[in-house]
Amino acid sequence: MMEILQYPFFQRALIASVLLGFSLPLIGVFVVTRRLSFFSEAIAHSAFTGLALSALLMTPAMPTVIAFAMLVTLAIVFTLHRTEIPTDTVIGVYLALCAGAGILLLGVLQGYQTGLFQFLFGDILALAWEDVWLVVVMCVGSVLAVLAMWNALLRVSVHREMAMAMGTSAARVDLLFLVLLAVMVTLSLKLIGIVLVTAMLLLPAAAARNLTHSFRGMALLACVIGGVSSVLGLYASYWFGTASGAAIVVTAAVMFILSVLFRRGG
Amino acid sequence: MADIVLDVNSVSVEIGGARLIEDITLQVERGSTVAIIGPNGAGKTTLLRAVLGLVPLASGSITLFGVPITQLGDLRKRVGYVPQRLEYDRYLPLTVKEMLRAYVPQASSASIEAALQEVGVHRMLHHPIGKLSGGQLQRVVIALNLLRKPEILFLDEPATGVDIEGESRFYDIIERLREQHHLTVVLVSHDLSVVTRYASQVLCMNRRLLCFGPPAEALDAEMIRLVYGQDTTLYAHREHQP
User: Fold this and answer.
1) Does A154 touch chain B (CB under 8 A)?
2) Interchain contact, B86 vs A158, CB within 8 Å
3) Backbone torsions φ then ψ of B24, nearest 5 degrees
4) CATH architecture assigned to A3-261
């Protein structure tokens, strides 16, 4: 079991997956609490369009994808504030728009699909050391950002109008959190892929929610479940010779099922 | 000269093209309790939301502490608000202490316990908010407001969903706190006994202003019929009799 640790590719995968397994669930507790799972899905899919755009415009891939994700985030926030349409419907509209535009552009860019799918579905075992450094920066940055916004996010989550009446700018909190979420999702995509990003955002937080009555407990437990799922999943993929990202997702899903079975009463 | 804390001047609010309140004028003196009454759909909550700066005005102006409501900035720290009911996810794992800490991060553990003690829910400190009854939760929200040391407290039908005995206790707490903390209180209520027992001024409205003044002067049988409809008859509830 330990011999695999001598391989640099496994060391890099282990460090990156544990760090992302710890930091994505910390954001995930607010994604679950604020029912934003659909938003992270929409941003993940916007990367399709962003990447196709970068190929079409011949601009650098990652900055274009992030810029497009920011544009979609701002468009969603703007529409929410300009209309009375429910949040999930607004997000659905932009998800459909991104999917449609992405498919259109893919049609124009025949032959580019291979690169696209590599980008979107990631491979944690193929990370280079510079990718690991990017993960370190992302994780430290996102943890610090979430901790700085912690109370404001909780206030807006509990009662938006009470928070606003008492001086919290709910629109600013929403925008900052959605931008953070969009940046983390887009940066993680290339590293670990859509499935693993959304799984790490949602599954540990959802499992932790079943097991505790305090918000701090939920956050800590989500980070632990995310980290443990990453290590167990990575080793499971080594033992069974399966895809590592999928093994991490399945491990986190098993944790969630266990949390349902052992859910605290009432 | 009266110390006016809140000045509402000819305010109208329109949402989605519909005029919800029209030409409401109101002045609230420091230390008073003003009750806003009216039938369902009269625009009471809309008026409160306008006063809190949560909805834009179609016309008119509102100043709080002498400052336009849209420019309150740090003065919002002096504003307390108890919404009608906390419509939150009942299964959110959040303890009472965590909720109070989120809204008042600078509060010490001792001051949190003292505030909860003051409203009689100190045993709920580590309870998840989803497990509290409606009355307990409203008292926790009062404690939250006390921690912020507001000068003016707005309450929007705060006893909705609380039984009559609990409602009476709740308003007794508000009145005691108003005296102890020198608060100005503006509350929306549908309950005339609350108005006559606790309010120094009453504002009756049905989209437009119908009356404003001390309850004994402003609220006669004719006005009550005008506010609540011609078929209204007054009965004394046994729980509310002295």
Assistant:
1) yes
2) yes
3) -95, 130
4) Orthogonal Bundle (1.10)
